[in-house]
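Entry:
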Amino acid sequence: MTPPQRRRRDPVPEPPSQPSKEGEGKNPERLYIITGPDGERAPLDLVTLIVARAEPPSSATPEQSAVLRMCRAPLSVAEVSAYLGLPFSVVTVLLTEMLAAELVQARAPIVRQHLPDRSLLEAVMHGLQRL
């Protein structure tokens, strides 16, 4: 036998559940404040490396200061976007402004060299074994 359940004298009605929409609860005005009016963007992709060229000036926004602190060592645009928690499109506008002000420098990603030919490695190995 289960014990009786207590009930409130004045039950509080629950608000009707509404299906949550994607992006609901986020503040789109904040992104506009960060980026300003949309203008031309620098040709940046996810793997472009960003390197800071200067210390954060006193007039820098919090996001610009964060980028300059993070990018003392090269970081990709994707990493900057993830660390800031901002969409890629917002970060590209922010970085375009910083590139124009010469606060950061954009570099092509470092491409791994192809492995040398196997026959060359075998020839070197055999030459070393003969020594």
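The helical segments are 28-35, 62-70, 77-84, 88-100, 118-130.
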